[in-house]
Amino acid sequence: MIVFFGPAGAGKSMQGQMLAARHHWRWLSTGQLLRDTKNPEVLELLQTGDLASDELIGRVLGQALEKAQDIERIILDGFPRNTDQANWLIGEQERLGRKIDLAIVLEVPRAEIAERLRVRGRADDTPEVIDARLNIYRKEIYPILNLLSENNIPIAHVHGVGTVGQVHDAIEAELEDRGVVSLGG
Predict the structure, then answer these.
(1) What is the pTM of this model?
(2) Phi then psi for 87, rounded to 5 degrees?
């Protein structure tokens, strides 16, 4: 498994989908999984705007991972978001017959994130909401990365500014340097 981290607007989904397409891997976004589910409990949460519990997200993601047993590698986008979710994922690796090959952290300066989200133009992308999201991300990411490191999971910090292609090339280089893929030249 490859796990993508970065604040909203860093490009996790774009880069994860590009990797999945290039290597014939499966991209799994917990947000998309929740939106696509037929589970009445999840649908109610989405309608009310409440956050899904760690247990519910773990169950939905676990089912998706089990269905993807025939896929060589999974790319996770939006999970884990806290240390409880990270502990769950680390603990489930063996049961699922998978390991976390690499955590990729897309590093994008705060001003760049704010501009990307402003251009995106979603109604909830106000400066106050963007600042709150970035503060939550910064607060949660370091304990997660420490936990992954303590469990010998490699972490790659990738500069996420530049063209989509430049960032993608930097990610591919990290994957090759760490032996996750062989690009052969």
Answers:
(1) 0.89
(2) -60, -40
**What is the per-residue pLDDT across 93-146, written as a single tens digit (0 to 9) for each?**
888 889 999 999 999 999 999 888 888 877 767 888 888 888 889 999 999 999
CATH label of the domain that carries residue 138: 3.40.50.300
- For CA atoms 5, 133, 21, 157, give the dihedral sign: negative
| Cβ neighbour number for residue 68 with a 10 Å cutoff | 16
The tokens for 54 are 């760690």
Please give the tally of structural domains in the chain.
1
Spatial distance between the Cα atoms of 11 and 116, rounded to a whole number of angstroms:
10
Q: To the nearest 10°, the Cα dihedral for 50, 53, 57, 60? A: -90
25 vs 172: CA distance, rounded Å:
14
Please give the residue range of the domain that contains residue 141.
Answer: 2-177
Residue 184 inside a domain? The answer is no
The span from the CA of 128 to the CA of 134, in Å, is 10
